[in-house]
Amino acid sequence: MSGTGARENVFATRMALTNTKLRLKGAQTGHSLLAKKRDALTTRFRAILRKVDEAKRKMGRVMQLASFSMAEVTYTTGDIAYLVQEQAKLATFRVKAKQENVSGVVLPAFEVDRVAGSGMFLSRRTFSSQAYTCPDFNLTGLGRGGQQIMKAKEVYAKALETLVELASLQTAFTILDEVIRATNRRVNAIEHVVMPRLDNTIKYILSELDEMDREEFFRLKKVQGKKKRDNAARDANLEEHQPSAIDNAIGPEETGSVDLLSSKDDDVIF
Amino acid sequence: MTTSFKDRNLIAVIGDEDSITGLLLAGIGQINENQKKNFLVVDSKTQVATIEGAFQEFTERKDIAILLINQHIAERIRPTVDKYQQAFPALLEIPSKDHPYDPSKDSILKRVQKLFGE
């Protein structure tokens, strides 16, 4: 039983047993804590999963709308792609990262952050009435189609907001996925490696201690038996000697020496 | 990881001309001091290697928080996109004008479907 599974390399002592029992208890506590963490994360993960799915579909619609408005711009203004690309210098549509804590896991959340761009044509703010215009493109569509461009800009900004939201969901999704996997690995490792090993160690120590107990008992029995045998032998011996002593007592005047001599005398007599 | 996403605040795009124009109109365009753009216009003549290069560059840059890529372009470098697992920058596949959005091709949605299917 003790030699079946992997176990710690310890001496089978009472102290090692206590230590291992304590460690097993610790492992059990850790296991239950990690399992709780995993459950909390999984709950969160499921919620995010559903949201990601929804947001992706919503994004499809929003981007379609944005493409339509772009088509309108192209129809009225002509190709502005080159113009726009050349004028892009500094991003005015940025994101800000916040963080959120879900049972010890830091999840980032992006937020739209619009900053005033340092446009080249600040003097001619054609679209400055808009809340978030980017001064860089204020000359674009000055001839015609200005309104369409304005609209496209707004629609695209809206679409980007959706995209940013989706991006933070997706990042949370990726991170959570990773963390859940790591937690699962830990939970399983404790459950299937650490705890059985400690269990085996405890069993091993117990069996060794039992074995030692039995050995000790057997040894004591043996010693007792030996003592008994010795005693019996001595008693027998004593009884054997007793008559000789009596003999000696009969004729004490013959020899005034010790027993040893008297026994020798017996031998001599025989 | 916890410190690095603080200074990520740009959105990068790899897309066709129309998508790029629209997104630039919204104001995401940025050209840094090394004249590096945060967008790449892809048309039918663009080499796959160019797209891959831009993809690598954008994912390795430290100031980009979100990378948008048109789905039909992502399709052309699908192995690279599928291999991409990092949290930052977040990779988003967006539909383009000529190519409607197909959720079954999205690498993230594929994982979502897989997880739901389990």
Please describe the structure with a list of short key phrases separated by commas or semicolons:
heterodimer; A: 270 residues; mainly alpha; two-stranded antiparallel sheet; 4 helices; rod-shaped; B: 118 residues; alpha/beta; 18% strand; globular; membrane (chain B); ATPase_V1-cplx_f_g_su (chain B)
How is the secondary structure organized here?
The complex is a heterodimer of chains A (about 270) and B (about 120).
Chain A: H1 14-77, H2 81-87, E1 93-102, E2 105-114, H3 146-250, H4 259-269
Helix pairs in contact in A: 1-3
Chain B: E1 10-15, H1 17-26, E2 39-41, H2 48-60, E3 64-70, H3 71-76, H4 78-83, E4 90-94, H5 107-117
Parallel strand pairs in B: 1-2, 1-3, 3-4
Family (chain B): Belongs to the V-ATPase F subunit family.
Protein name (chain B): V-type proton ATPase subunit F
Keywords (chain B): Hydrogen ion transport, Ion transport, Membrane, Transport, Vacuole
Give an overview in words.
The complex is a heterodimer of chains A (270) and B (118). With 270 residues, chain A is mainly alpha-helical. Chain A has a two-stranded antiparallel ribbon. Chain A is rod-shaped and about 150 Å long. Chain A has helices spanning 14-77, 81-87, 146-250, 259-269, and strands at residues 93-102, 105-114. In chain A, a hairpin with a 2-residue loop joins β1 (93-102) and β2 (105-114). Chain A has a domain at 28-191: Orthogonal Bundle (Helix Hairpins). By secondary structure, chain B is an alpha/beta fold. Helix content of chain B is 39%, strand content 18%. Chain B contains 5 helices and 4 strands, in the order βαβαβααβα. Chain B is globular, with a radius of gyration of 14 Å. The model of chain B has no long low-confidence stretch (mean pLDDT 80). The interface between A and B is large, with 62 and 51 residues.
